[in-house]
Amino acid sequence: MMSKKSKDSRNNVPKNKVRKHNLEYFDNSNFETKDINEVTSLLLDTYKTYNGRRFLNDDNLNCLLPSDKIELERSTLSHLLLRHRWKGNFCSPIKEKLNTRGTTILDVGCGPGLWTIDMGLKYPSSSIIAIDIDSSNFPPSDQHPQNVCFLTCNAIDGIPFPQNTFDFVNISMMWSVFSEAQWILVIKELVRVLKHDGWIEFTEPDPMVKNRGKKLTWLMEHFSKACQEIRDVNVHIHEKIPNYIKEMDELKDLTCMSVDYPLGEWYGCFGDYAIKNFKRVFQGLVFLPKYMEMSNEEFNGLLNGCFEEANKNKSFFTIYKCFAKKASGEVSII
């Protein structure tokens, strides 16, 4: 049974600060000095810098990874690796629906929008809304399909659409963003805006590398503890998501799948790119060296040793997909 609060949230569109990404808003070249100072102040208030990496400046956020050019490049590589390994952008049985005019898709935590643009190009009959708390990586309006729209939105504060809006909801690689309590809130919101008979799909990794040696084992143990203690983020959220789905009365037909991600040159080009991407994740966790009582130089040395070890041991990790269908809203009459 749903609580009264959950039921109320299904009937009310949540309040949220939403801004449509439109570069025309910034096209006025006749800024006065006052305007420039305001823009500079806004940028300084929006971001903060730790160990040379740029992060969103909001203490209420649990984000572990930076929001800068380096992370943008890493997330781009991550998308390409995901698409290659899964042989596509989704596994839910909704392909036929996506070719139907009027189909609506929501992409949560879209980042630079690569998944969104891919889907917009492949399924021009569908309309796609992509949301992210950081709009700085959104593509210019002339560099994405017309059936795609980007919105600045913090999913924790609610999804600013009525219930039963989207035919398909995608949320991928958000392991580093939410606490467990926030995951539950977000999932409830995503189910609220999902149409009856629509599909929701989650893609999250099990970051604990298999076939790891002593160095990598030591690193992974500290990584897991640090994320939980410092930012209240459970990096093993892939284990929780199937249970969250099962606890939602509205969802049915749960399916879980997995693929292994080889790490290292032992698996050729893919393995080489995969381990470089994996290393960049740890380089973005700027709090980890201090937690492990190491200098940055010592930490980078540890990373190099860990990944030499991974290549020797033919290490890999696993990424999971879970997808489920929202039950029909039809009421049976006996």
Task: Describe this structure as you would to a colleague.
- The protein has 334 residues and is of the alpha/beta class.
- The two termini are 22 Å apart.
- It has a single domain, classed as Rossmann fold.
- Helix 3 runs antiparallel to helix 9 (268-284) and helix 7 packs across helix 11 (296-313).
- The protein has helices at residues 4-11, 33-46, 69-86, 95-98, 114-122, 180-193, 214-231, 241-247, 268-284, 288-291, 296-313; strands at 19-20, 47-50, 53-56, 104-108, 127-132, 148-152, 166-172, 194-210, 251-262, 316-326.
- It has an 8-stranded mixed sheet. A two-stranded antiparallel ribbon has the order 2-3.
- GO terms for molecular function: methyltransferase activity.
- Residues 105-198 form the Methyltransferase domain.
- Keywords: Methyltransferase, Transferase.
- This is S-adenosyl-L-methionine-dependent methyltransferase.
Features:
single chain, 334 residues, alpha/beta, Rossmann fold, eight-stranded mixed β-sheet, two-stranded antiparallel ribbon, 11 helices, 10 strands, globular, disordered N terminus
How would you summarize what this structure contains?
With 334 residues, this protein is of the alpha/beta class.
List the helices and strands and how they pair.
Blueprint: H1 4-11, E1 19-20, H2 33-46, E2 47-50, E3 53-56, H3 69-86, H4 95-98, E4 104-108, H5 114-122, E5 127-132, E6 148-152, E7 166-172, H6 180-193, E8 194-210, H7 214-231, H8 241-247, E9 251-262, H9 268-284, H10 288-291, H11 296-313, E10 316-326
Helix pairs in contact: 3-9, 7-11
